[in-house]
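[scheduler] slot 2 assigned
[scheduler] job type: sequence-to-structure, two independent chains
[scheduler] chain ordering preserved from manifest
[runner] begin chain α
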Amino acid sequence: MAHEMMVLALQLGVILLAAKFTGWFFASRLKQPKVLGELVAGMLIGPFLLGSIPLGSLGPLFPLVHGTIPVSPELYGIATLGSILLLFTSGLETDLPTFIRFSGKATVVGLGGVIVCFLLGAGITVIFHPDVHSFMDPEALFLGTLSTATSIGITARILSEIKKISTPEGVTILAAAVLDDVISIVVLSVVVGISLVSLNGGTVAWSGIGLAALKAVGFWVLCMVVGIFSAPYLTKGLKRFQSLGLLAEISFGIALILAGLSEMAGLAMIIGAYITGLSFSQTDVGPEINERVKGVSEYFVPVFFAVMGMMVDFAAIVPVLGFGMIFAVLAFVGKLLGCGFPALFVGFNLRGAFRIGAGMLPRGEVALIIAGIGLAAGAIGPDMFGVAVLTMLVASIAAPPILIFSFRGKPGYKKSLEEQDEADMVYIELEFPSERAAEYIRKSLAEAFRAEGFYLNSIEGSVRSWQIRKEELVFVMKRCEAKLEIAAKRQNESFVRLMMLDTLADFQEFVVGLKSMQSPDLMGANLMINMFAQEDKEKMNRSE
C-alpha cells in the first residue's frame, strides 16, 4: 500500500507539472485552449509513450494496465474526481433560468444529434468495413452508438474558459450534451442486449432493457426536479451556520453522493455532479460556493484531461487509420448537421447553429466507455476499439479550436435575452463629479447591501460590474468612470432607490461632519500635507 501511494504521489506530481506547463504554452503561445495542452501532455507522458520508459528500480512511472483503461485504478479514481469537480463547477456557472428556457430547444438539438449520428455511424461501418453487412451487426450497432456520445467535460471546460456557459448557445450545448449522454447510455443498454443475442443466440429481453432505460431517464428527471426545488431551502437552512466554507463543503459532498447514485442508476457520474451544481446555481450563495470549490478543481481537473490523453494508444490506431479517419470525419459531420440543423428551427441563426454543432463535437471518456463495453462483450474487436481511440483523438484535438473560433462575432440567437427582459427592467443612474466619489459611493452601497444579507459577486467585463443577490432578489450594479448604475426588476425599483437614498444621506452627513471639524490637530495635519506636497513639487521641478 505504501509503495502504491508513493507511486501515485509521483504520478500526480508529474501530471500536474506537465499539464500546467503544456496548458500554459498552448494558451499563451499558441492561442489554443488549455484543455488541448493538458490532453497533449497526457499523450506524451502516458503509458504508450514516455511513461513506459523504466526509471531504475522504480520501473515505468506509468506502466500499461491491460484492459479498457490503461492506467491504474488509483490514478483513474483521482481523474474521476476531477471530472466530478469540473461538471459541478460548470453547473454552478450555468444560469438556471436560461437553462430552463432553452431546455426544450436543447431536447430538439440533442435528439437530432443522436438520431443522425447513430444512423451515420452505423451506415459508415456497413459501407466501408468489409466484414460488416447489416445495420444489425454488433459492430455497426456499437460504432453507431459510439458516434452519438459527447464529451460534456471538454465542452464545459472550454465554455467556462471563454465565459460563454450562460449564453443561449452555451446552455443549449450543455443541456443537449447531458441529454446526449443519457440517451447514449439508454441506447447502449439496448445495443448490448441485441449484440449478446446476435452473438449467443436467443431472444432480446426487451422488458429488461426497457426497465433499465426507464430507470435511468426517471432518475435523471427526478434529480433535476428535486434538486432545483430543494436547493434554495437547503441553503437557507445552512446559512444559519454562518460559514460559507461549510456550505461549499456540504454542497460538494451532495454532488459526490448524487454522482455515485447516478452511476448506480446506469448514468454517468458527471451527470449527477452537473445536476447538483445547476441546482445550487439558482441560490444567492451559488457564486460563493463556486469560488471556493474552483480553487480545488484547479488541481484535479488537469489530471482528468491528462488521463484522458493517456488513453490514446497510437499502436492501435495504425492498423485502422484509413477507415478510422473516414469514420472520425463523418462523425464530425454528423454532429454538425444533426445538432446544428435542428437549431435553425428553434430560434438560432446560422452562426448560432454552427456554434451548437461545434459544441457537440468533442468525444472523450463516454466514447471510450462505450467501446470498452463492446470490447468486453465481444461485440467488437481490437481494430474497432482502435477506431474509437482515433475518433476520440481527432475530436479532442480538432474540436476545441473550432468551438472557440465559432464563438467569435455577433450573437447566435435571433432575439437577445436582453431584448426579451427589457420591458421588465429599470435602470437607476447617478452621476458624480469624480471617479473617486463614484467609487466611494459604490463601496458604501455594497456595504449597505451586505448588511441587509445580500451577496456581491464581481462580473468580468470591460465595465466594472457586480451582481447583488439575496434569494430571489437580483440586481446588477455597474460603474463606468464617474457614473453609477443599478439594474433591477420594476417591482424592486422602490427598494433599490431607498437603499441608494440612505447611502447618499449617510455620505452627506459624513461630508458635513468633516467640514465642521476645526480642531488644532486637524489643522496641523492639513499644514503637514501641504508642506509635503510642496516638497514633492520642488523635487519634480529639480529632476526636470
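[runner] end chain α
[runner] begin chain β
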Amino acid sequence: MDNQVKDKVYILDTTLRDGAQRADISFSVNDKLQLIERFDDIGIDYIEVGFPASNPKEMELFEKLKGRKFDYSKIIAFGMTRYKNIKAEEDENIKQLVQSGADSICIVGKSSALHAEKVIETTLENNLSMIFDTIEYLKKYFPEVIFDAEHFFDGFRENPQYAVKTLKSALEAGADYLVLCDTNGGMLPDDVIEIIEKVKKGVKATLGIHFHNDSGCAVANTLIAVNKGIKMVHGTINGYGERCGNADLCQIIPNLEIKLEKSCLKEGNLKHLTNLSRFVSETANQISNPGQPFVGRNAFAHKGGMHVSGVSKIPKAFEHIDPEAVGNTREILISELSGKKSIILKAKEFGINLEDDLKKVSEILSRVQNLEHKGYQFEAADGSFELLVKEITGLKKKFFKLESFRVLNEKKEDGRMLSEATVKIEINGDRIIETAEGNGPVNALDSALRKAIESRYPALSKITLTDFKVRVLNEKKGTRAVVRVLIESSDGEKSWGTIGVSENIIEASWQALEDSVVYGLMHVEKNKQE
C-alpha cells in the first residue's frame, strides 16, 4: 500500500440530507444539483444526496441524476434497514434504493439495544437479521454498501456486546464501511477514544465516523477518531444539520490535510474551500458565520494594534495557517484598538502609501477613535473607512453637494405606508431638485438621489443596495437613542459596507447611503482609469 492510499481519509458529505434537516434550510432540486456539481469539482469522495423514498422532491432528484457519472464523486442514496416484519426484497423503501441509480448505498440501522426494543419495538435478534438481510440483498446490486450504526456510541455504553454484534452482522453481510454514529451528539473526546479502541480490538473492518454537535465536540471527536485509524469521515459543509448541526467539514478537512497530513480532497483543491463554504451558505439562504474557523470572514482578521504589527512582520506569529491555503484572505480591521501600523497597512490596500506621513496616520487614527466613541464601527464599513482616509489625504472626490433633503411618510386608507423624499443637491454649480416615492424612507431617499444624479453619473445604475441594518446603541434612551445604520452595496463585481450614526435614523441612513454612492462612483472611475 503506497503512502497516498495509506494516508487517504474518505469524505462523505451529507449536507444534502443531514444538513437539509436544519430547521431553517430547504434545498430545491436545482439547488441540490448545483451543490453536487460543486462538491464533485472540489473532490468530495461520497455525496449523500437523500432518501429516495422520503418525498417526491427526492424522487425527482434521483431521476435527474440517473445515468450521470461525475468526474470524482460517488452519489450515495440513503435508506433504512428492512421493516421488521417483511423480507428485504419486499420492502418498498429498499426497492426504491435499488431503482435509485445511485453509485453506492448508505444504510442506517439500530446499534442500540434500547432503540431496537423500545423505539422500533422488535427483538434484539430480529434487529440483527434486519441489518444482515438488508445489506446482503443490496450487495447484489451495488459494489459498495456503507452501514451507519445509528446511536452506536450511546448503545455501546448501554450494552457494548450488542452494539458490536450489530457491526459484525453488517460486516458478515458484506458492508464495506462500518460507520460509528454519535446520533445524539453527546460524546466527549475521552469517550470516543475509549470506545473506538475497544471496537477495533473486536471488529476487523474499515471504520467510519459520523458525529453530531450537541456537545460542541463534533469536530474534535472526528479528528481524534482519524488519529485512531478511522478511514471514513461524515460531515456537512458549514456544520449544517438537525438541532446543533453535524461535524463541520470546513473545519475537519483543512485540519486533516494541513495539520495531520492526510489526503481528503482532490490534490490542490483545498484552496477552493472558502468559496465552497460561502456558495453553500448562499444556496441555503443562510448568513455566513464570520467567526467560522478557516473559512469565516474574520478567521484571519486582525484588529489589535500589536497583532497587526506582528502579522505584518511574520504572519505565522499570529496565524495558525496561511489563509490562502483554504482560499481565505487576511483582513486588517480598523477600530479604536488599531495602532498606526494598522492604518498604514489598510491604506496600502487602497493604493495609498502613508509610511512617510505619520502626521496623517495620527490624524486618521484620532478621527477613527473619536468616531467610534460616538458609535461608529468600521470593521463592517470598509467603504466608509476608505472614504475617510481619502478625505484626509485629499483624494476623496466630491461628486455632489447636499443642500437639503426632506422625507414625508403617509399612511393610506387601505393600510399601505408610502414614503416620499425630496433631495436638493448641487453638481458643478447646477442646483437640482428631485422627488421620489418609495416603500420606506430610505428607499425613497435612494430613489430621489438617483433621479438627481444618474444623468450625470450613468455608472450609478450598476450600484445596488444589497443589505440594510439598523442597531440601537443605547436602548435606555428610548426614542432618543443613537442608532447605527450599516448599508451593504454592490456593483456586481465588488461589495462594500458604509455606515451612518445619529439620533435620527433618517440622518444615519443618509450618511451611509451617501458614502455608498460616493464610494461606488469612485470605484467605477478607478476601474476606467486602470
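[runner] end chain β
[qc] chain β: The domain at 7-266 is CATH 3.20.20.70 (TIM Barrel).
[scheduler] slot 2 released
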